[in-house]
Design a protein that fits this description.
By secondary structure, the protein is α+β, with helices and mostly antiparallel strands. Helix content is 43%, strand content 23%. The radius of gyration is 61 Å and the shape is rod-shaped.
Length: 895
């Protein structure tokens, strides 16, 4: 029985009431009571427990009015059965029990089993029935409200938890992406962070140049264990209509359920592979973009169904990932720019250090050897410098490596240099063609080599990169090459190639300058030697020794000189000097001073007068230069020494009477300072066996040694037993550390044997050997000495005249023609020996005579007049020319 009651006050859902009552009268009474209520009820009456339970199961009433005593069961059983049903919406109905019994235990049992209240049929009135039902309905409504609010609270709580999880996830995403500044690390981090929050697999697709796509991915451990991921690295097709292609093209996020998965799989190999293996439930694809610039896309693949907020979360995740990618690219660009700047500074520093090193010296081999210390490891890990002269085999100047094994392999390569390099690759091609050979991957060089031995040798070097550059000369021709190598993954760049070529050019300029310096230094040394006596003359009664040692300061020649001039009547003059300054001007001035002073001494001037004449000569040149000079004159017969100094250092005297000491000289100014300078000379006997040493300031003074200290060391080192001039000079040079001196060092030592008149005559009787400078004043001196020798031998006057006439021609030609064109005159030696009835005379020079065709004829051109005259005077005349000079041999026979 169904009855509908309309609500009078406000529309509301009619409450469903189930009345289970087997008494028709009681049921009709209850229905009548409720019908007159102003509430709207839908009342259904069932007479058995089974029918009531069936109705409750199907219609879910709000209130059940239950008779305790039913034909097919009591109320307690009904209530228990009702509690087993699954209820929707508001849940189980509110139960009101009706009973005709007054036993309170029944009422208590009903309430324990779940009844809201019970009513006694005997006491039931309309008012109590209506009130009880209203209370049950309100209870039902309160229960519904509570359940609704509970559901709402649960939903709010779930939404709040989801929002918190989402916010926490995105916060972690931002934090972790901020830590990864490397572009590849950012891509990997993006893929890993998406698992498992946004899916079981994440594909990161980046757009590259020329519309290419590169893909990286990450998958959960379960997916990796169950899936074949061979297709995961294949990028999607950009020309597709769905998936990553659509997201990149449109910039919109898309969610794909089961219906559209095949559409995505058509253009995405990774999704297709998962779909074939039945591991795809839904896919979300979001674009990666920054400032309207598309970077790529993110594809999130889930085995199940994505959450409702997956789209929003994927879009926010993609935005943060895009920002991280842009920041990573900016950081990479900045870091690359910083590295490039640092590399440029390092390269410039290398070039600056190389230029500084090469600018310090012009000693090529030493500078190149030091060069490796600058280049390793600042620029490379190995350097080999090879010089290839126009004629001859290439020469390895230096080879150095950071690793001993590499250097050992390079040493093997150097020993077999011709066989190691191919004809048109590597350093051989550089030396042959002057081109740069650059291999960013040194293995490429090995593959280009034809012979297995070559490949093995190059492979043993263990280079990562190989670079060979030319060393050009001043004319652009290749004079050598440099091999640079890197190791341990370090690679040369194009900028390094530019630096290497620059190093080759700088080294080429340095070598050109060094070669020019070497040539000029040799010329300067030759000039210096030509300005000094090629050999000391042999003078009876005096032993000489001399040294000239060029300073280490550079190529400039100095102005130091020494000279020994034999004079007539048994005297010998000697001098030492030091012109201020260095260079060719100082050397030229020195040559002029030496020649002038020699001429003055040959004229027979005293030492003081010779210095005065020399002072006037220097001032007349207007060269604004000066020189210190010491001049001595020794009579070998008497041992009398006359000495004058023009500001020169005091001589060192060694004799048996006392320890080594410095000889006091009259103080005076150097020549070339003032016109009216006065030079005084002193006289003293030089005991037989005494040794006098003259020297320049380079011997005793240096940057680390003062003048007083130098004098003390000189006196100390000369106190040894050496009194022979040659041994004494050698000892002084060795002990004074002359090799390290920056200045030139000159020494002249003479030892007197004081022959006396008789001894002198005896020496003449044994033979004559005198040396003179090849100057015109020397000719009469040589003839006078020869005449003195001939008279001492009691040669007939008429024969003396013939000998002097023939000897004069030989000497004249040596003086005038032997040293034609020389900067300074050389010397000639005249030797005479007498045997019974035979006089032999030799005139020897060390020059190169003028060849035929010159405008001035020599005595030997076309057997000229000089030769004819000598043939007329002598019994035999022989002339020998060779590279050492010319020897004229005259033989005179007499009864």
């Amino acid at each position: 029985m169904l009855s509908r009651v309309a609500a009078k006050t406000e529309p509301r859902r009619a409450r469903r009431i189930l009345l289970v009552e087997d008494s028709a009268a009681d049921a009709s009474l209850v229905v009548r009571y409720l019908t007159r209520d102003d509430a709207e009820y839908e009342i259904t009456v069932k007479t058995t427990a089974a029918d009531g339970l069936a109705h409750a199961r199907e219609h879910a009433p709000d209130v059940v009015l239950l008779d305790y005593d039913l034909p097919d069961g009591d109320g307690l059983e009904f209530i228990d059965e009702l509690g087993t049903l699954a209820w929707r919406d508001g849940g189980a109905p509110v139960i009101l029990a009706l009973t005709g019994q007054t036993d309170p235990r029944i009422a208590a049992a009903l309430i324990r089993h779940g009844a809201l209240d019970y009513m006694s049929k005997d006491d039931l009135t309309e008012e109590s029935a209506r009130l009880a039902v209203r209370q049950a309905v309100r209870t039902r409504e309160m229960r519904e409200t509570l359940e609704r609010r509970t559901r709402e609270n649960d939903e709010s709580r779930r939404a709040l938890v989801a929002a918190f999880e989402r916010a926490s996830f995105l916060a972690n995403v931002s934090e972790l992406l901020a830590r990864a500044l490397d572009h590849v690390s950012v891509l990997d981090t993006i893929a890993l962070l998406a698992i498992p929050y946004l899916g079981d697999v994440c594909f990161v697709d980046m757009i590259g140049g020329e519309d290419t796509v590169t893909r990286r991915y990450a998958a959960s451990s379960r997916m990796q264990a169950t899936l074949d991921t061979a297709e995961f690295e294949r990028p999607p097709l950009l020309e597709g209509n769905e998936g990553a292609a659509r997201a990149i093209r449109s910039g919109n996020t898309a969610v794909y359920g089961p219906t559209w998965l095949h559409a995505v799989a058509r253009f995405d190999p990774g999704v297709a592979a998962m779909l074939r293996q039945g591991q795809v439930g839904s896919v979300v694809v979001a674009p990666l973009e920054f400032d309207d610039r598309r970077l790529g896309s993110l594809t999130f693949v889930s085995r199940g169904t994505h959450r409702d907020d997956a789209r929003d979360t994927a879009e926010e995740f993609a935005r943060r990932a895009s920002t991280a990618l842009v920041n990573a690219r900016a950081f990479a660009a900045e870091r690359a720019a910083t590295r490039a700047s640092e590399a440029s500074r390092a390269r410039l520093h290398v070039l600056a250090r190389v230029s500084e090193l090469l600018g310090r010296t012009l000693e090529s081999d030493a500078a190149i050897a030091t060069l490796t210390e600058v280049l390793i490891p600042a620029f490379c890990d190995h350097v080999t410098v090879v010089l290839a002269p126009a004629e001859g085999e290439p020469r390895v100047v230096v080879s150095a490596s950071a690793e001993a094994r590499t250097q050992s392999a390079m040493d093997d390569a150097i020993r077999n240099f011709g066989a190691v390099e191919g004809r048109d690759v590597g350093i051989a091609a550089t030396l042959r063609h002057g081109r740069t050979e650059f291999y960013a991957d040194a293995a490429t060089l090995g593959r280009r080599l034809r012979e297995p031995r070559m490949r093995e040798t190059v492979g043993a070097l263990n280079f990562t990169s190989y670079l060979a550059v030319a060393i050009p000369d001043a004319n652009g021709r290749t004079q050598g090459g440099i091999i640079f190598g890197t190791q341990l993954g370090r690679r040369f760049t194009r900028d390094d190639v530019t630096i290497g070529e620059d190093l080759g050019r700088r080294l080429g300029v340095f070598l050109n300058n060094a070669n020019l310096f070497a040539r000029e230094r040799e010329i300067a040394r030759a000039l210096q030697q030509s300005l000094l006596p090629p050999e000391l003359p042999m003078v009876p009664g005096v032993d000489f020794a001399a040294r000239y040692i060029a300073g280490a300061a550079g190529m400039d020649v100095g102005g130091d000189w020494y000279d020994v001039v034999p004079l007539a009547s048994g005297s010998v003059a000697f001098a030492i000097g030091d012109v201020a300054g260095r260079g060719l001007l100082a050397a030229a001035t020195m040559g002029q001073m030496r020649s002038s002073l020699r001429a003055y001494l040959l004229e027979g001037l005293e030492p003081s007068d010779a210095l005065a004449r020399l002072n006037g000569f220097v001032l007349s040149q207007e060269r604004n230069t000066f020189a210190t000079v010491g001049v001595g004159l020794l009579d070998v017969r008497t041992g009398l020494l006359r000495y004058a100094s023009a500001g020169h250092l005091p001589p060192l005297l060694l004799d048996a009477a006392s320890p080594p000491r410095l000889v006091e000289v009259m103080p005076s100014l150097p020549v070339g300072v003032i016109a009216d300078a006065v030079y005084e000379q002193s006289e003293r006997p030089l005991a037989p066996g005494a040794t006098l040493v003259l020297y320049t300031d380079g011997l005793i003074e240096s940057r680390t040694r003062g003048l007083e200290q130098g004098f003390g060391e000189l006196l100390h080192v000369s106190a040894g037993p050496e009194r022979d001039p040659e041994a004494l000079v050698a000892a002084i040079v060795a002990r004074m550390g002359v090799a390290e001196s920056d200045d030139d060092v000159t020494l002249l030592a003479l030892r007197s044997t004081r022959m006396g008149e008789a001894a002198f005559d005896d020496a003449l009787a044994e033979g004559l050997a005198v040396t003179y400078p090849a100057l015109p004043p020397s000719a009469p001196l040589a003839r006078a000495r020869l005449a003195e020798y001939l008279r001492a031998q009691a040669i007939a006057p008429e024969l003396v005249g013939d000998v002097l006439l023939a000897a004069g021609e030989a000497v004249a030609n040596a003086v005038e023609h032997a040293y034609g064109g020389a900067v300074q005159p050389g010397i000639f030696t005249m030797r005479a020996s007498l045997r019974p009835g035979i006089l032999t005379l030799n005139v020897v020079d060390h020059g190169i005579w003028r060849q035929r065709g010159t405008t001035v004829p020599t005595a030997f051109d076309d057997r000229g007049r000089g030769f004819m005259l000598m043939e007329a005077m002598a019994s035999s005349v022989r002339v020998r020319h060779d590279v050492t000079g010319t020897r004229v041999s005259l033989v005179f026979a007499f009864a």
